[in-house]
Design a protein that fits this description.
The complex is a heterodimer of chains A (131) and B (193). With 131 residues, chain A is of the alpha+beta class. Chain A contains three helices and eight strands; from the N terminus they run E-E-E-E-H-H-H-E-E-E-E. In chain A, the strands form three sheets. In chain A, strands 3-4-5-6 form a four-stranded antiparallel beta sheet. A two-stranded antiparallel sheet of chain A has the order 1-2. In chain A, strands 7-8 form a two-stranded antiparallel ribbon. In chain A, a hairpin with a 5-residue loop joins strand 1 and strand 2. About 12% of the residues of chain B have low confidence. Classes of the chains: A alpha+beta (131), B alpha+beta (193).
Chain lengths: 131, 193
């Protein structure tokens, strides 16, 4: 699975996710990536793209959850990502990337590593795999 | 109002025995697509255009599990899916079950922009792709020799197999003994996306 989240200079957020799914999957199987609110979500507040165990991400409506705890619990972006990864996956394993309309970027994962990269207009840039 | 920001991912749950040269390849691809997005943002491109541009690039490179290099079904074919969402007005588009569309994310964008729906799947999505004139290729285009080998491993292990298309047989079987477990299965014998 691959994904990208962006907030532009106007503060507009967007998210995109694409995948081949699971190796040796049954034909016809649909995972979290195409499900709005599960693998992908964007609103006025943030943009989120998820990857990992599709069934856990779907059950946790993971991408929408980040926006919800920002809206209703007033959490900042990284706190929202950490809260969702910690509290919404049950025994599942997943990772996600997110941006906020104020130009923040964040990511989180509870499995063994995640291929990710992020950058901000102030010059911050990071590419990583492990913790 | 802050400035622009961007993040990309190539999948979560990575083989602990990932060979260093493959780690380097992954980092180079992530850096390349990140820079592609950054230069677009510096040219004032909109967020929705940048996420589509970056994911198209990731779909075209066979390294990660999407587009060319996608994981294979039990029948050895490729079935792809994608979605895109624009935070402004929360517009969205999604597709599933694609077998011939070269860049699934662009079809998802067309579902969002050019159809009255938000999700099209399987033959309906393929019909829409032909109507919209997007680039179509044979299913073989998406299948890589590495993934054919990975599918063979998965079938021999009688399970769904991790899709990071890195381990050769020995690292995969070695990794199967790894202590890491995911949903009751050794991490490398499990298949998150």
């Amino acid at each position: 699975t691959v994904g990208c989240v962006v907030v532009d200079r106007e503060g507009r957020c967007a998210a995109a996710t694409s995948t081949g799914g699971l190796m040796n999957k049954m034909t016809g199987r649909i995972g979290d990536s195409p499900m709005i609110g599960a693998g992908t979500y964007a609103c006025e507040v943030c943009g989120v793209s998820c990857t990992g165990e599709g069934e856990a991400i779907i059950r946790g409506t993971l991408a929408r959850e980040v926006a919800a705890v920002m809206e209703y619990k007033g959490l900042g972006l990284q706190d929202a990502v950490d809260f969702v990864i910690k509290n919404r996956l049950d025994e599942g394993f997943a990772g996600l990337i997110a941006v906020s309309n104020t130009g923040e970027v964040a990511y989180g994962f509870n499995c063994n590593g995640m291929f990710r990269g992020c950058a901000c207009e102030d010059g911050f840039m990071e590419v990583g795999i492990w913790e | 109002m802050g400035g622009w920001a961007i993040a990309v991912h190539g999948g979560a749950g990575v083989d602990p025995n990932l060979p260093p040269q493959r780690q380097q390849q992954a980092k180079e691809l992530l850096t390349r697509v990140l820079n592609l997005g950054i230069s677009s943002l510096r040219s004032n491109a909109s967020a929705i255009d940048v996420v589509e541009l970056v994911v198209r690039e990731l779909e075209t490179d066979p390294l990660f599990n999407s587009g060319r290099g996608s994981a294979l079904t039990e029948k050895g074919t490729v079935e792809m899916e994608a979605s895109i969402m624009d935070g402004t007005k929360r517009r969205c588009g999604a597709v599933s079950g694609l077998t011939t569309v070269k860049n699934p994310i662009s079809l998802a964008r067309l579902v969002m922009d050019k159809s009255p729906h938000s999700y099209l799947a399987f033959s309906g999505a393929e019909d829409f792709a032909r109507q919209q004139g997007v680039e179509l290729v044979e299913n073989e285009y998406f299948i890589t020799p590495e993934n054919v080998g990975m599918l063979k491993l998965a079938k021999e292990a009688n399970t769904i197999l991790f899709d990071y298309r890195i381990p050769t047989y020995d690292t995969c079987s070695a990794a199967i003994e790894s202590p890491l477990v995911m949903n009751g299965l050794p991490i490398n014998v499990y298949a998150p996306e």
